[in-house]
Design a protein that fits this description.
Blueprint (H helix, E strand, L loop, with lengths): L1 H9 L8 H14 L4 H10 L1 H5 L7 H8 L3 H10 L3 H6 L4 H17 L7 H9 L4 H12 L3 H15 L3 H6 L8 H16 L9 H5 L3 H7 L7 H16 L1
Helix pairs in contact: 8-10, 11-13, 13-16
GO molecular function: nucleic acid binding
Keywords: Signal, Transcription, Transcription regulation, Transcription termination, Transit peptide
Family: Belongs to the mTERF family.
């Protein structure tokens, strides 16, 4: 039991809202079916976020009765695939939330987060209120190669000074084409160096406008802006060739 309690201490940032209650519910369920303490500790450690974000509504005796199996058999099934516990004991209405959690987890892992770290937990919290945007963006993002995602992350950090946490909270950024990001950010940085832009701009205001609007509202701020803009695009074309 000390091993299990230590897990809660290690993940103190998670002890907020319903997270603790859900996690304790999973712990209680596994204890009720007489699972070994070491096995419980391993499952809780490796699936902390899954169980913390899923509310178990069915009692062990109900699950055992519905499945018509022994506690020992249920222990074996859950040890083989811990997420089966969610499928067996959570209400159907929890499935959507669990699926969203999986999408969020996959997304964060794809951009470089390490699961069950403090940074990972903070990033998950950033998604509150932005879940739908992330879910819509994640499928596209997950199709990109790791190198492309790393390049886009570096551009965001180098030109706008934004961290990985910012990227996690604004996944829409990763849906923009790498050339568009490179051209727009390079132009924006050049304009800032020339002193014609003094206030920081969001990535959205830089990337969202059409080329015509970007030229009008950014490029034309400097007399040599248009020449620089064309030069940036030519450099990109020559690199491809």
């Amino acid at each position: 039991m000390e091993m299990i309690l230590s897990l809660f201490l290690q993940h103190s940032l998670l002890l907020a809202g319903n997270f603790t209650e859900n996690l304790l519910g999973a712990l209680h369920f596994l204890s009720e079916i007489k699972m070994e303490t070491e096995d419980i500790a391993m499952i809780i450690r490796t699936h902390t976020h899954v169980f913390g974000c899923s509310s178990l509504k069915k009692q062990p005796r109900t699950v055992l009765s519905q499945l018509k199996i022994s506690p020992e058999k249920l222990c074996e099934i859950i040890k083989e695939d811990p997420q089966k516990l969610i499928a067996f004991a959570a209400k159907k209405c929890d499935t959507g939330g669990h699926q969203h959690l999986q999408e969020k987890t996959r997304f964060l892992l794809s951009i470089g987060y390490v699961e069950n770290t403090e940074e990972f937990v903070k990033a998950l919290k950033e998604f509150r209120g932005k879940g739908d945007q992330m879910i819509k963006s994640a499928p596209f993002v997950l199709e990109q190669t790791k190198n492309v995602i790393e390049m886009k992350s570096k551009l965001l950090a180098d030109h706008l000074g934004k961290s990985l946490q910012y990227l996690a909270a604004h996944p829409k950024y990763l849906s923009y084409d790498i050339d568009r990001i490179t051209h727009r950010f390079s132009m924006y940085t050049w304009l800032r160096e020339k002193g014609v832009i003094t206030k920081p701009s969001s990535f959205y205001s830089i990337l969202w406008p059409s080329d015509a609007r970007f030229v009008k509202h950014y490029v034309n701020l400097h007399p040599e802006g248009l020449a620089m803009w064309e030069s940036l695009k030519e450099q990109s074309s020559s690199n491809v060739l």
